[in-house]
TrEMBL record:
Gene3D superfamilies: Cytochrome P450. Keywords: Heme, Iron, Membrane, Metal-binding, Monooxygenase, Oxidoreductase, Transmembrane, Transmembrane helix. It comes from Didymodactylos carnosus. Belongs to the cytochrome P450 family. The chain crosses the membrane at residues 57-77. This is Cytochrome P450. One of its GO terms (molecular function) is iron ion binding. SUPFAM superfamilies: Cytochrome P450.
Length: 424
């Protein structure tokens, strides 16, 4: 009985001790929970306070100005890239003329007048409706083709870039797409200036233009209903360029050449449309990666590539051995200067260069010959008077003596030399 009582009391003590320990553990656990809760509340409050600091007015404006600064830096880099890629006539190095620089392709006539004023020593003939500038200085030709033709090539680049992809394994592409490399661009312009310089020395251009005038006047007399100023002048300029390039004269009723002319005219018309009017088309072109002149470019390139293959059939990896089956045209000049400019140029690149020359040259000739064509066709008597006036001024020694690459002086300037007509 006593043992049972002792055992019961011992059990009560054990239970009491266990309860004490449990209560102590409970207090410790409560303290731990309180500490954890306090830590969580502190973290949340710190996060809230940091969030409030993030969205403060000072941080908001600083972030805004940082974004604006980044945008300005990107615009500045793009402007620097464009300035190095294209040479503007007056700026944009001078901010006062940046509007003239941007809208140069819309002010061709005014800028040509400025160009003429920069060369007052050139022979000028004043007629009853305009002023004729006789440009027969190789340095001036070089200035026009190199300094001015590039300005119109930015739109051409955007279209040809879809057609003429960068080929792997070729570290140099044609100057059409990557004009700022200035390697193949120099090939085009040096060969063109050299060729025109040789034509001046041989007095060949006068004969070519006279023959084309006779053909064109006979064509207009028999097809007066088909006369359109833009299309007719474009065709006239293209006939001149084609005869100079391939030493062959095409008749105006040649169906094959007429198809080629129409395709090239469509390209020119598309490229030189108003930029604002075709903004949506350009956006769709960039999104889809398709050019609206892609198939036309393929047609024209096929024509030119066939001509290049016929003239330059033997491809070789040796840059010092480049042969040609003919001589005396622009292709021959390009082939001559290709080894000194870029080592990996094939027939496709040469065809792209020819297309670039035709596009630039036809547009420049079209703008320059517009008034000349109308003047000669509509006013033949006044044209003869202007020609005699030019000859008399040359006889009086009032014109500039021009020295060509052949070291021969052109003391006498014909009216139909390299003639640029600027309408007043």
């Amino acid at each position: 009985m006593a043992e049972n009582i002792l055992s019961n009391s011992t059990a009560d003590k054990v239970v009491e001790n266990v309860e004490k320990v449990a209560s102590g553990v409970g207090k410790v656990g409560g303290k731990v929970v309180d500490m954890l809760q306090e830590a969580v509340q502190t973290t949340v409050s710190d996060t809230d306070s940091s969030g409030l600091e993030e969205f403060s007015i000072l941080n908001y404006f600083s972030s805004f100005f940082i974004h604006i600064a980044l945008i300005v830096i990107v615009i500045g880099l793009k402007w620097q890239y464009d300035r190095n890629r294209y040479r503007y006539p007056k700026g944009p190095r001078d901010w006062r003329h940046i509007s003239d620089a941007i809208s140069f392709h819309r002010k061709k006539r005014e800028n040509l007048l400025v160009l003429a004023n920069d060369y007052p020593q050139m022979c000028t003939v004043v007629t009853h409706v305009g002023r004729v500038i006789l440009l027969n200085d190789p340095s001036l030709i070089n200035e026009i083709f190199i300094g001015r033709a590039d300005l119109c090539s930015n739109k051409i680049d955007s279209y040809l870039e879809n057609q003429l992809r960068y080929k792997t394994g070729k570290h140099l592409r044609t100057g059409i797409v990557f004009r700022h490399y200035d390697h193949n661009g120099q090939v085009i312009h040096r060969s063109l200036v050299e060729h025109v310089d040789q034509i001046l020395a041989q007095n060949k251009l006068d004969q070519v233009i006279q023959e084309q005038f006779e053909q064109f006047r006979s064509y207009l007399s028999s097809n007066s209903s088909k006369f359109d100023v833009r299309r007719s002048t474009f065709r006239f300029a293209l006939h001149i360029l084609t005869q100079l390039c391939i030493n062959r004269t095409f008749k105006y009723d040649d169906k094959v050449f007429e198809t080629f002319t129409n395709n090239l005219y469509k390209i020119s018309k598309t490229i030189h449309e108003d930029t604002v009017a075709k903004t949506s088309k350009v956006a769709l072109t960039q999104l889809t990666g398709l050019s609206e002149t892609l198939d036309i470019n393929e047609t024209v390139l096929n024509y030119i590539q066939e001509w290049v293959k016929e003239r330059h059939p033997n491809e070789t990896t040796d840059d010092s051995q480049v042969t040609s089956t003919s001589s005396g045209d622009i292709l021959d000049s390009i082939i001559k200067v290709v080894p000194t400019a870029a080592p990996h140029i094939d027939n496709e690149d040469v065809a792209a260069m020819i297309l670039d020359v035709v596009m630039h040259g036809s547009e420049m000739l079209k703008g320059a010959l517009t008034w000349l064509l109308l003047y000669v066709v509509k006013y033949p008597h006044e044209a003869n008077e202007a020609r005699r006036e030019a000859n008399s001024k040359c006889d009086d020694g009032k014109t500039l003596t021009v020295t060509t690459s052949g070291n021969s002086a052109l003391d006498r300037t014909e009216f139909c030399g390299i003639t640029w007509v600027l309408k007043i």
